[in-house]
Amino acid sequence: MVNASEVSHDELQRYYDALGPIRDLVLDQSLTEVMVNGPENIYVERAGKILLTDRKFDDENHLLRVIDFIVSAVGRRIDFRTPMVDARLLDGSRVNAVIAPIALDGPMLTIRKFSRDPYQAEDLVNFGTISPEAVGFLKACVMARANLLISGGTGTGKTTLLNVCSSFIPTDERIVTIEDAAELQLHQEHVCRMESRPPDLNGEHRVAIRDLVINSLRMRPDRIVVGECRAGEALDMLQAMNTGHDGSLTTLHANSTRDALSRLETMVLMAGIDLPMRAIRQQVASAVDLIVQLSRMRDGGRKVTSITEITGMEGDTITMQEIFLFESHGVDKQGNIKGVFRPTGIRPHIMDKLFAAGVPIPPELSRVFPDRRAGESGQGGPERRAA
Ligand SMILES: Nc1ncnc2c1ncn2[C@@H]1O[C@H](COP(=O)(O)OP(=O)(O)O)[C@@H](O)[C@H]1O
Ligand SMILES: [Mg+2]
Hints:
The chain is of the alpha/beta class. It is built from 13 helices and 15 strands. It is 30% helix and 25% strand.
C-alpha cells in the first residue's frame, strides 16, 4: 500500500494533478465528502450540507481514467467483472468507485475525506451532538471497561464517535484495532492496527474482519476495537466480551437501539453456527453494556439520540433502559432542530461499577446518581465529595 509519507513532494503534486477536476475539492479541508455521479455531476458536502459544484469531467472516459488511476495506485483493479471497488487516496481518504454494468448513469466515485485532526469530544459537544455529562458518562464507562456498541445509519458519525470513545482508553493498555479501511486515529502508544483485505482477482486470499477478530485474541489484547461489525465477527466479539476481553468497542449499522439488537442477532447467525435464538440473546445481554444511538437530523446535524443500558433478560426478551435521551423541541427559524439531551433519571446499573472502579465521574452526573456504597469514603474522588 502506498503511503503519503513515503512519497516525495513532486510525486504528491503529480498525484493530485492527475485527479483532474476534483483535485481542488480533494485538497479543500473544509469539505468532508466528494461525490461524483457521472462526468457532469460533482457534489460535495460541507458542514453537513450537500452542494452541487460547477466542476465537470470532459466525458465518461475522462472520469473512468481518473477512477482507474486512483484504484491502480493502491494495487486494485476495476473493470466490468469487478465493477465495485474500495480504495484509498494517498492522503488516507476512503474511496468507493462503481462503474458499468452496475452503475447505470455513468461511473460513480464517492470520497470520504480523511480528516487530519479528527473531531474530539469537545467538538461533538460544540456541534450539539452530545452533552458534556453524557461524554463524562461514556468516558467513565470506557475507563471502567464497559462493552460499548455505537449504532447509527451511514454517515451518522459512528466512526467519529468510536474514535472519541477509544481516546478514553488508558494509555498503558494494549489496543488492537480492526477495520475495513483504517480510519481510527488513536494517540495511545501501544496500538496494533490491522486492516482486512478483499479477495484478489482470482477471488482468493481474502482476510475478513472475522479472521482478524479471531487472530486478535491471540495477540494478548487489553482492548479490541472493531471499526464496524457487519457479519459473523459479531459472534466472536460477543464471545470475547464474555470471556474476559471486556472493554471492547465497535459500531454497527442500525436505525434504533432495538434494531441494533436484532441486527446483532442476524450477524451472529451469519457466523454459520447453529445457536438457538435464546442462547444468542443471552450472549448479547451478558456481553453488551451500552448502546449509543446516533442519528442524522433533517437539518444535517448528527445527534446522539439515546444512550441505553442493557440490563438482562426477561423470558426471551433482552431488557434495557434508557439513561440519556434527546428530547426534540421542534425547529428554529433557520430550520435547525432544537432540543436537549438529558439524563432520563433512571439510575444505570453500571453506576456502581463506575464508583467501584474509582474512575472520574462528572459532578453533574454523580449528583443525579450518587455513590450508594455504604461506609466507604474517599473512593469516589473529589467529584463525589462535591455531590
Ligand atoms: N457529530 C458530528 N457533527 C458533524 N459532523 C460529523 C459528526 N460526526 C461525524 N461527522 C462527519 O460526518 C461524516 C461521517 O462521519 P463518520 O464518523 O465517518 O460516519 P459513519 O461511520 O457513521 O459512516 C464525516 O465527514 C465526519 O467528519
Ligand atoms: Mg464508519
